[in-house]
Amino acid sequence: MEDAFHFGSFSIAPARRSLLRNGSVIPLGSRAIDILLFLLSHPGELKTNAEIVRQVWPDTFVEEANLRVHLSALRKALGDTQREPQFIANVPGRGYRFIAPIERRGRAVVSSPSLLRLRAERPPPRIFGRERVVATILDQLGRGRLVTVAGPGGIGKSTVARAVVSNLTSDSEVLWIDLSEFANGDLIPTVVASALGVLSRTDDIIRDIALALQSRALLLVMDSCEHVVVSAAEFVENLLADTANLRILATSREPLRAEGERVHRLLPLDVPPPEAAAEKALTWPAVQLFVDRADACLGGYELTDDDAPYVVEICTRLDGIALAIELAAGRLEAIGVHALSRSLTNGFKVLTRGRRTALPRHQTLRATLDWSYLLLLPQEQQALRELSVFRGRFTLEAAIAVLSNPEADELIAALVAKSLLVAETPFETPLYRLLDTTRLYASERLLESGDTRTVMTRFALYLIGLLEIAEEDLYSTSIDWPQDFVQQAPGLRAALDWAFGAAGDDLLGVRLTVAALPLFFRLSLLDECLSAVTLAINYLDPRPDLDERSRMKLYAALGWPQMRSTDAPEHGIAAWTTALAIAEKLGDVDHQLRAIWALWVDAINRAEPRSGLSLTERFAVLAADSSDPADAIVGKRMRGATLHWLGRHDEARDQLQKMLAEYEGVPRSRHSVRFQFDQRVTARIILARCLWVLGDEDSALREVEETVRYATDIRHYLSLTNVLAEAACPLALLAGRDDLATEYIRLLREHTMALSLDVWNAYADCFEAELLLRAGCYGDCARQIRRSMDVLRQAGFTLFLTIFQVVEAQALSGLGLHDEALQIIDAALQHCASSGERWCLPELHRVGGLIALEKQTSDASSLSLTHFQAALEAARQDSAVGWERRVERDMVFRRLSSAVSRAEAPNDHPACPPSSPKDDAPPAGAT
C-alpha cells in the first residue's frame, strides 16, 4: 500500500506523479511535481532553496532562477497567490513551506500494465462451475508447454485464464498480453518484446525474446488470439523452439493448431432444467453467475421460486455464454426479471428458428448485443458507437474529447451501469474499456451510421493534442514513465491505420505520426515507428512544401533507429541527409545540428576521421547560432573525439577536459535525446582512452570505473553500454587486466541482450576473442572474431576494425599462417593511410613486427625491424606513451631472444652469421 496526499480539492500519489483536482489531471512538469512531493513529505517545515535544489536536481548545478520558475508554475496550478497563499508559503530569502492540512490515504499500486502478477493486483476472479476446468488446465500446463483455451466469444476464456494464473505458485512469473488491442498479427513479437523490455535491433526479434527468457520460468498468457490466429501460431512455435522453460497459455475462439498444442475447449456454463426451483437452480453455474451479477447490479438480489423459471429461461436462451448472461443481468436496474425474459425472447426471435446448436456462437452473442443496443436511449447508442474508436483502456478526459454529446459524464455512467462499458480503478483515476465483442459490434454500428470519419478525426486530434503537450516529458530520460501514455498505444495504432487507410485522412495521419514520435521512442516500437513514418513520408514527398517541417522531422525519425541497425545502414544516412537539406531550407538550426551530428557519427563509425573532422567544424560554426549555448560545448566533445581517432591525443585530452568543465550544470536529458547519449559519458569515454594512450593507465582505468558508475546511477543504459563497449572492455584488455575485462564483457553482454543492440554484442564477441587469443585458442579466436567483424562491416561500424584485425592477425600467426596475417596488417595500414585513422597505428606496426619475426625467412628480421621502427616513430609523433612502451618492450625482448638463441647454439654447428650493423643496432632513443 502506498499513501496518496490529499489537500483541499487536490490529490497526488508519488508513484502516479499526476496532480489531480477533483479527480481531473492538472498538467504540471516533472520538476514541479518533484518539488511538490518534497514539500508534502515535510508539511509545515521550512525547506531552504538549497535543500529543494539538492532534492530535485541531485548532482547538478542549477541556478535559483530555475527553481523559481518551477515553483511559480506549481503555485499557479494550485491557484496560490503571493499575497494570500493557501498551500505553499514563501519565506523571502530563506525558502518555502507547505502550509495546508494534508490527509494521507493508502491505495494499491500496480507497477506495470503488461507484466501482471494478478494475485497481487486484485483478488482471484470469482468463477462459477469452472473449478475442475482450472485444475485440468493447470495439469495440462504441467504436461505440455502450450495450452489453448478455445471456445466462442464471451464464454469466459479470459476469466478462466486469470483463475489459472491465480492458482499458480506465489513465485510464478506471468506476462499477460491482451491481443484484442492489436489488429495486426505481425505486431505480436514487437508487443511481447516491448512488454519484456527487449529492444530488438535485428531481423530475428523472436530470437531476441528467447535470449531474454533463457533463464526465466515464465508463463506467457496470450489472450484473444482468434483474430490473429495464424500469426499467433507461428510466433508460439518459433518461441517455444528457442526456449526451454517458457510455458504459454492462449485463449482463442479456435485452436492455434501449433506444434505441441494441447487444446481445452471451454463449454458453456451448465444450465438447469426448466422446472428447477430456486434452491435447485442455484446449484447450476449459469444461474449462479446471473444471480451474482444481479446482486451486484441491484445492491441486493435473491432468487425466488417465482423468479427462478424466468432466470432459467434467460440463461437457457443465452446458451450459458457468460458474457451474454452478465449483460442480461446488468439490465435488471431498468426492468424486472419477468420483463427481461420477455424482452430477450423478442430480441432473439431469430434464434428460435431451426436448431440453435447449428448456429455459430458469435451469432448468439451478436443477438445479445443487438438486444442490449436497442434498449439504449438514442444518445447512449451514439455514445457507444463513438467510444468504439478506443482500443484498450481510456480515461474520462479522453471520452469527453471524442464524444459529441456534452453530457459525456452521464453517458459514461449510464453505459457502465448497463454493463456495456467496464470501469476499472487500478489507480485513483478510473479507466474504462469496452469488451472486445462489444467494441466490434459498436464499430459496425458506427460504420453503418456514416460517422466514422468524424469520430476518428476527433479521436486523432485528441491524441495529437495529448502527445504534443507531453513531448518534453516523453523525451525526458529521468521522468517516471507515465501510465497515461502507455495506454494510448493501442488507440494510436488504430488511429494511424484509419488515417492512412482508404477512407481516412492522410494529412491528419502525418500530423499524428509526428506527434507520436516521442511515444514510439519511449516504447521502443521501432517497427511501428518506421511503418508510420514511411507512410507519412510517402504522402508528403510527392507534395513539395505542403508541410516541410513535418517532413524534416519524419526523415530524422527514419534515420534515428537505423543508426544502430545492421540492416542497410545507408538508409539511415540517406534519411539524415534529406533531413539536413530540409532543415537548411527552413533555417531550423536544431535539426541541422542533429543531422550533422548523425552524419558525423556515421563517419566516425566507418573509421573516416578526416571526414568527421570537417563535420565537426561545420557543427561548431552552426552551434554558434543555436539558441542552446550548450550545443557549442557538444561540438567541442565531437571535435575532441575526432582528434583522438586522428592520433592527436594531447589535443583531444585538452579539448575534452575543457568541454567537461564547461558542461557542468547543463541538464542531461535534452542532449541525451537529441544526440542519443549522455554527453558527459561520451566525453569521458574518449578522455579515458586518451589517458591510456598518453601513458597514464591508472587514471584511465579510474576514469572508466567512475563513468560506468555514473551511467548506472543516471539509469541511461544506452550510455552505459557505450562506455562498456568503447572504453571499459578495450582498456581493461590493453592494461592486461583479464579479470576486469571479463567482468566488463559480462556487463556488456547483459545490457546488449536487454536492449537488443546487435552492434555492441558483436563488440563483446571481439573482446572475448582476444581473451581466447591469450589462452592460446587461436582457431576459436580467429573464427569468432571473423564472424563478428563481418557483422560490423555489414552494419557500417568499422571504427574498431583495425584493432580487431590486430587480434585476427595474431590468431592466424599462432596457426602458422604468417603471410595471411601480414596481409591483414597491411590492409589495415592502407586503410589508416587513406582515412586518416591513426589512433592505434603504432600497435599495427608493432604486431606486424612480431608476426614478421615468426616467418623465419631471410627477410624476416629486416621486415620486423622496419615495422618496429615505424611503430616507435608513430608513437613518439603522437605522444602515445602507452603504445610506445609496448613497442619498446617487444624490441628489448626481440634482442634478448636473439642473444639467447646465439648463446645456446650447439658448438658442432657453424656460428650464425653476424647481423648487419643496421639490423643489430637499436633504433634511436630505444631503451
Can you describe what's shown?
There is one protein chain. By secondary structure, the protein is α/β, with parallel strands linked by helices. The chain has 44 helices and 15 strands. The strands form four sheets. A five-stranded antiparallel β-sheet has the order 4-3-2-1-8, covered by helices on one side. A five-stranded parallel β-sheet has the order 10-11-12-9-13, with helices on both faces. A three-stranded antiparallel β-sheet has the order 5-7-6. β2 (10-12) and β3 form a beta hairpin. α26 runs parallel beside α28 and α35 (717-734) runs antiparallel to α36 (738-755). The radius of gyration is 34 Å and the shape is globular.
Defining traits:
single chain, 927 residues, alpha/beta, Arc Repressor Mutant, subunit A, Rossmann fold, five-stranded antiparallel sheet, plasmid, OmpR/PhoB-type_DNA-bd, DNA-binding, nSTAND1
* Tally of helical runs: 44
Q: Spatial order of the strands in the main sheet?
A: 4-3-2-1-8
Instruction: Determine the N-to-C terminus distance.
Output: 70 Å
What class would the helix/strand composition place it in? alpha/beta
**Percent helix among the residues?**
55-70%
Shape from CA axes? globular
Give the CATH H-level superfamily of the domain at 118-265. P-loop containing nucleotide triphosphate hydrolases
| CATH C-level name of the domain at 118-265 | Alpha Beta
User: What name does the CATH topology of the domain at 118-265 carry?
Assistant: Rossmann fold
Mean pLDDT metric: 82
- Poorly predicted runs of 5 or more residues: 107-122, 346-364, 562-566, 899-927
Q: Tell me which CATH architecture of the domain at 118-265 applies here.
A: 3-Layer(aba) Sandwich
Main sheet characteristics? 5 strands, antiparallel
The protein's oligomeric status is single chain
How many strands in all? Answer: 15
Strand content bin: 5-15%
